């Protein structure tokens, strides 16, 4: 009897444990739970902790509270100028109506399959009306805002309300097709080379202009300096002439002596200078007399029938 009682007690404990385990569930901080009974949604639990449900009848479906990411496959978009652009985008969203989400999307995996075409359609509708420079410019944020709005409008219609809020749609990568990229790079290179040539031409023109101005200014300055030098030289010559004239007027003999000394200095400066002059000449007057006066010369009578002898010439070296 005692062993039977223990067996029955053990069975009851196991059954009770199974009932307790089936009747309780735990919700984490990052989760929200939807209670489903025979396919019908009963309630939503958003408070973290331990909760209860009807065992074996009710089912718990957990959903994320956190922001979720959707990374669809890269899509080829035709731009307004008929260029083909490979766009790789991602979507950030969160579940705001768990019961509606369960009714329409059923699961997060199913939502991804249904949301990806909506995102691609929004990308085509917005990017298909602009050019590539617009996508690469500061207007890109406005385009992304418009795409996000279009996706939100598409997932929250009366016919297909997914119970989610799309927070942001961003482009990770936007590349032209390889053959188009090469053509674009070639055109960009040609444009940059043309700009560089234009800048070099402008620089050369400015160089020539500045050089011409500098040459003109240098010519003007040199001419002015030459004019001033001629004026100063003329004034100096005039002053020199005045001083010499004054000196000659005050002491003509000293002036004559000074001029003779200058003549000696200039004439006898070189070592190989040779003069053949009579010693009584004007040039050597200060060699014959300190005063520079010519020496008295008497007329000597030559003997009869004879000729007078010529005076020897002085050679200065």
UniProtKB/TrEMBL annotation:
GO MF annotation, one: peptidase activity
Taxonomic superkingdom: Bacteria
Membrane topology classification: Single-pass membrane protein
One family name in Pfam for this protein: Band_7
CDD domains per the UniProt record, alphabetical: SPFH_HflC
Protein name, per record: Protein HflC
Predominant place of localization: membrane
Localisation: Membrane
GO CC, one annotated term: membrane
One of the GO biological process terms: proteolysis
Organism: Tistlia consotensis USBA 355
Residues passing through the membrane, by range: none
Keyword vocabulary terms for this entry: Hydrolase, Membrane, Protease, Transmembrane, Transmembrane helix
Protein's job: HflC and HflK could regulate a protease.
Family per similarity comment: Belongs to the band 7/mec-2 family. HflC subfamily.
Domain spans labelled Band: 22-188
InterPro entries: Band_7 (IPR001107), Band_7/SPFH_dom_sf (IPR036013), HflC (IPR010200)
Region (Disordered): 287-317
């Amino acid at each position: 009897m005692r062993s039977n009682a223990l067996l029955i007690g053990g069975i009851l404990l196991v059954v009770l444990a199974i009932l307790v385990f089936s009747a309780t569930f735990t919700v984490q901080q990052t989760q929200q739970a939807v209670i489903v009974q025979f396919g019908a949604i009963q309630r939503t639990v958003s408070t973290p902790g331990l909760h209860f449900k009807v065992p074996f009848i009710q089912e718990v479906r957990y959903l994320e509270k956190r922001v979720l990411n959707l990374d669809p496959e890269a899509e080829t978009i035709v731009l307004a100028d008929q260029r083909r652009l490979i766009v790789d985008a991602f979507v950030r969203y969160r579940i705001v109506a768990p019961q509606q989400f369960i009714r329409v999307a059923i699961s997060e995996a199913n939502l991804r399959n249904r949301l990806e075409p909506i995102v691609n359609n929004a990308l085509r509708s917005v990017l298909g009306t602009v050019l590539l420079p617009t996508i690469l410019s500061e207007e890109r944020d406005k385009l992304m805002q418009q795409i996000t709005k279009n996706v939100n409008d598409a997932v929250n219609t009366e016919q297909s309300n997914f119970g989610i809020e799309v927070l942001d749609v961003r482009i990770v990568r936007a590349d032209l097709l390889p053959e188009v990229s090469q053509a674009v790079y070639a055109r960009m290179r040609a444009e940059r080379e043309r700009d560089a040539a234009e800048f070099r031409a402008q620089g050369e023109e400015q160089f020539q202009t500045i050089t011409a101005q500098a040459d003109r200014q240098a010519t003007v300055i040199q001419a002015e300096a030459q004019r001033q030098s001629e004026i100063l030289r003329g004034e100096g010559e005039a002053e020199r002439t005045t001083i010499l004239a004054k000196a000659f007027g005050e002491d003509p003999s000293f002036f004559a002596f000074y001029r003779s000394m200058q003549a000696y200095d200039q004439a006898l400066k070189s070592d190989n200078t040779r003069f053949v002059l009579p010693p009584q000449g004007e040039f050597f007057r200060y060699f014959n007399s300190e005063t520079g006066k010519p020496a008295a010369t008497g007329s000597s009578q030559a003997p009869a029938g004879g000729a007078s002898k010529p005076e020897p010439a002085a050679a200065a070296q």
